[in-house]
Amino acid sequence: MTSNVFDIQRAAVDELERRELSHPDNNETTRRARKGPEIGSTGLKVFGGVVTEEHNTSWQPPELYTTVDKMRKGDATVASILLAITLPILATEAHVEAKAPDGSAADPIVEEAAEFIRYNLFSGEVMTRDFLSLLRETMLFLAYGHYPFEKVFQKLTTGQYSGMMSWRKLAPRHPRTITEWHTDRFGDLQRVRQQVQESENLVDAMIPIKKLLLFTNQPEAGNPLGVSALRPAFKHWKYKDGFYAVQAIAIERQGAGVPYAKYPAGTPDPEKDKAEEMLQNIQAHEQSYFTYEDDWEVGFMDMGSASILDPGTAIEHHDSQLAKSVLAGFMQLPQDGKGSFALSSDQSGFFNHALNEVTRTVASVWNTDAIPQLLDMNFPNLPAYPKLKFDRVGHISIDKILEHIARLAEKGVLTSDIDLENRVRDMLNYPPVSEEDFEEARPEPEPEPEPVGGDE
C-alpha cells in the first residue's frame, strides 16, 4: 500500500518536471546560460539533513516547536502580539493582478491566465479549503520561522476549465514532522524528509522542493528554518515566566505571614501537638481558629514582604520588551490616559509598514514557487505571469494625506500628473485612472489676462 502511494507521488513529480522543463524559459540550457557557472555555496551548515545554525538548543528543532507552542499558547501577551500581526493581514483583500511589466493593460492571454488563478484560489469550487483559511495557517511561518505546504494537483473534469491542471489543495506539512532538510552542494534546498503516520507506524516520505510551497521568515544563507518572530522575545518571556512563579510563591508564603504560637516553658507535649495542628489548619483553611489561655501567644510573623523587590515591575518591563521585539510597542503604552497619542500613532504606523512587508513576503512565495508552475502546465509561452497581491494593511488618514499633498502643491513642490494621481489612488485603495481619462478630466488652463492700457 505504501509503495503504491509513493509510486503515484513520484509519477506526479516526474510529470511536473517534464511540463516545467518543456517551457522554453526553463530548459537546462537556458537556465545555465541565464545563471552562468556557480562556484561557491551559501555556507549553510547542514549535516545529515539537519540544519545546525542555531546556538540555543531551545530554538533548534525539534525543541524549537515546543518552545514556540509554550510561548504562543501559554502567554497572553505573546498571543495578543501574534493576533495583532495576523488579524490585520487576514482582513486585507488579496487579488490576482494581470499587468504588463510597464504597467499597461495585460495581454488577453495573461488576463485569461489570471482569471484561471482567481478561479483556483477564490471561487471555492476547486480547492478543499478556502483561501482565508489557508492564509491563516500560512501565518504560522512567523511564529515557527517556517511553514511548508505540499502542492497537490488534480485534473479538472467539468466546467469551463475541464482538462486543465489545478491545485486540489495546499496541504500543510507541520514543521515538527520534517526531520531532514536536504540541500545541494550550492546550499539550495532540494527535498525534505517527513515522518508520516501510517496506521500504527511512522514511515518516511521524501518531498521534492518542486512539490513544496515553503514560507520562511528572514531566511539567512538559504536557511529553510528561517528565524521565528518570537526569537528575540524569548529572553524576556523566559524571565517573565520565572518572575510570575516568584510572585506566586511570594503571595502564598509571605502575603499572609507565617502563623506562630508561643507557649510557656514546661507545656505538655500533647498541648504542643495540638497547637501545631491548629497552626497547620490556620494556613490550610480559611475558617480555622485558635483558642489559648493568658500565658499563650498566637500570631503571624512578618516576613518582610514589603521590603522585597516587587516582581510586578520586572514583569511589566519584560512585557513591554515582548511587544517591542515585533515592533508592537504601541500595545504597551500607558492605559491611564497619560500615553502619547503621537507616539502611539507613529509606532502603530511603523508596525503597519512591517505588516505590509509580511504580505509582500507571502505574495512573493506564491508568485515565485506556485503560480508560474501551475500556469506553465496550462498556458505555454505566457508573455508574463499574473501576480498575487494584497491591498495595503492598516488605516490611512485621508485628511492627512490630502492636507500634505495640498501643502506641497501650494509650494510648487508637487505638480499634477498621471503618476501622482495613480500613486494617491493606490494609497487610498482607489482604482487607477488611464492617461486618456486623466487628460480629459484636467481643467483647461486659464487664459492669461490681457495687458491693461496701450503700448508705451
Spell out the blueprint of helices and strands.
Layout: H1 2-22, H2 28-35, E1 46-47, E2 50-51, H3 63-74, H4 76-90, E3 94-97, H5 108-122, H6 131-138, H7 140-144, E4 146-155, E5 165-172, E6 178-183, E7 189-198, E8 201-208, E9 212-216, H8 234-254, E10 258-262, H9 269-284, E11 297-301, H10 311-324, H11 341-369, H12 371-378, E12 387-390, H13 398-410, H14 418-427, H15 435-441
Antiparallel strand pairs: 1-2, 3-12, 4-5, 4-9, 6-7, 7-8, 10-11
Q: Could you describe the 3D structure shown?
A:
The protein has helices spanning 2-22, 28-35, 63-74, 76-90, 108-122, 131-138, 140-144, 234-254, 269-284, 311-324, 341-369, 371-378, 398-410, 418-427, 435-441; strands at 46-47, 50-51, 94-97, 146-155, 165-172, 178-183, 189-198, 201-208, 212-216, 258-262, 297-301, 387-390. The chain has 15 helices and 12 strands. The N and C termini lie far apart (105 Å). The strands form 5 sheets. Strands 5-4-9 form a 3-stranded antiparallel beta sheet. Strands 6-7-8 form a 3-stranded antiparallel beta sheet, with no helix packed on it. It has 456 residues and is of the alpha+beta class. A hairpin with a 2-residue loop joins strand 1 (46-47) and strand 2 (50-51). Helix 3 (63-74) packs across helix 4 and helix 8 (234-254) packs antiparallel against helix 10. It folds into 3 domains: 43-229 and 352-373, no CATH class; 236-332, no CATH class; 397-444, no CATH class.
